[in-house]
Amino acid sequence: MDATTTPKAQVATVKLLIGGQFVESKTSEWRDIVNPATQEVLARVPFATEDEVNAAVASAKEAFKTWRKTPIGARSRVFLKYQQLIRENMSELAAILTAEQGKTLPDAEGDVFRGLEVVEHAAGIGNLQLGELANNVANGVDTYSVLQPLGVCAGITPFNFPAMIPLWMFPMAIACGNTFVLKPSEQDPMVTMRLCELALEAGIPPGVLNVVHGGESVVNAICDHQDIKAISFVGSTKVGTLVYNRASLAGKRVQCMMGAKNHAIVMPDANKEQTLNALAGAAFGAAGQRCMAVSVAVLVGEARNWVPDLVAKAKTLKVGAGVDKGVDVGPLVSCAAHDRVSGFIDRGVSEGATLALDGRKPTVPGYEKGNFVGPTIFADVKPGMSIYEQEIFGPVLCLVGAEHIDEAIELINANPNGNGTAIFTQSGAAARKFQEDIDVGQVGINVPIPVPVPMFSFTGSRASKLGDLGPYGKQVVLFYTQTKTVTQRWFDDSTVSHGVNTTISLK
Fold first, then answer.
1. pLDDT given for residue 7 in this prediction
2. Residue 474 parent element (H or E)
3. Is 149 within 8 Å of 64 (Cβ atoms)?
């Protein structure tokens, strides 16, 4: 973490959002938000104090009293307006995102758009928040269930998708009738704050959405606060495991989407050009900083001869600043991330993998201070190597060989992570075998990054996820609501019984 100091007067400061107002933090701890292509300081973000976190939660708790009673249709109309505002401001949002996070402008627009899809889904919440009714389950007895909001919910989001992932969280929670406290990544919170401004403009009432910034102490405060009922987290496995354990012990509902090591099987019958394009895009897009990035390709049979073709395809990608036209691979988010990824490449070489394409120290004219690592490919990778076992979170693709599909599936199932996987083949039989036998929550068939659209739910599994229910879609409605079941009987003179019934029967 960067050293924290008093904010410089000439640099803009990121505000907190409490009770519908953007307020200056009173903290003494601040962090620079740095453009990863230039090292320019864009703004300063505060690490909120304990009192400020408590104020945000108190605001959300008070707002819940009225928001929970707001009709579903009225809540939906807020998000109809919100999606319109996001569309109208798409270019501005993408520009902010690129400046602070580094991804290319087209990829930044994609980041916003995938979040926008969830906002659109939130606008149709009435179709998802339906209960059930069984009439006359016993003599004159009806039973029905309703899905009621929980109260104050919270979200902790990562640096790699500063638009999409916050939009995975607070729109669905708020549309379900809850109020929300969001803690975005301290590395790139500016696009998140602009999205919150638009949310207020769309009609979200004061206190329904609040934002605090900070690091470990703020995360711990969210986990411990007795008035927060549920927490959604996306980030590293290390932090997610701590959040899940701490918040669960505090009696909260928790869902944590965490680290990954996503494999793609390449069968020898796969469409070669399509597969090479898909692997290069999924491995090196966003500089590999995606929890759904393909970081391991398992080349089966004759596909093991495709290594030179993959290298040639990767060499066609342009490395540069995200604002420049034609750029495919932007910088890593920070100097620390750059050093970490470069260190993994060094270790891969020392452990005996074949460095088929070295992306270290690329030449990017005009951006000599940028955190750039170009597409990197390792061949002859084996389980046990650090580059295979650990999530690198950079533009590094590991290539593993397999004799046949059973060996490839066994290799993937032996990995503890289960975020996403894919197969490239023209064989329906191979694809069906893969989807049946693979033990991973999200499966792509000739689709490298199988993140489902919002009418479904994100369904990472095993070590990539803690908690039963995924973000957005039908599952998250269950996460953000409490099912209340009511059993009722109304008597008239003809149905009044006489005498005391000491059994559990409803007859």
1. 52
2. helix 473-479
3. yes
* Residue 435 in tokens: 């989807």
Contacts of residue 342, defined as CB under 8 A and 6 or more positions apart, other chains included, come to 360, 373
Question: In this structure, are strands 30-34 and 41-46 parallel, antiparallel, or unpaired?
Answer: antiparallel
Query: Exposed (0-12), middle (13-18) or buried (19+): which is 36, by Cβ within 10 Å?
Result: buried
Which residues have a catalytic role annotated? Answer: 291
Burial 234-268 (b: 16+ CB within 10 A, else e): bbbbebbbbbbebbbeeebbbbbbbbbbbbbbbbe
409: pLDDT strictly greater than 80: yes
The C-alpha angle with vertex 152 and arms to 149 and 158, in degrees rounded to 5, equals 110
Placement of tokens 């009621």 in the chain: 148
Mean of pLDDT over the chain: 95
Quote the CA–CA distance of 361 and 270 in Å, as a whole number: 33
pLDDT value of position 505 = 72
C-alpha 426, offset from chain centre: 31
- The count of other CB atoms within 10 Å of the CB of residue 147 is 18
Q: What pLDDT, on the 0 to 100 scale, is given for residue 424? A: 98
For β-strands 253-257 and 465-466, DSSP reports them as antiparallel
pLDDT at 139: 86
- Can you tell me the mean pLDDT for 235-252? 97
The model's confidence at residue 495, banded by pLDDT at 50, 70 and 90, is low
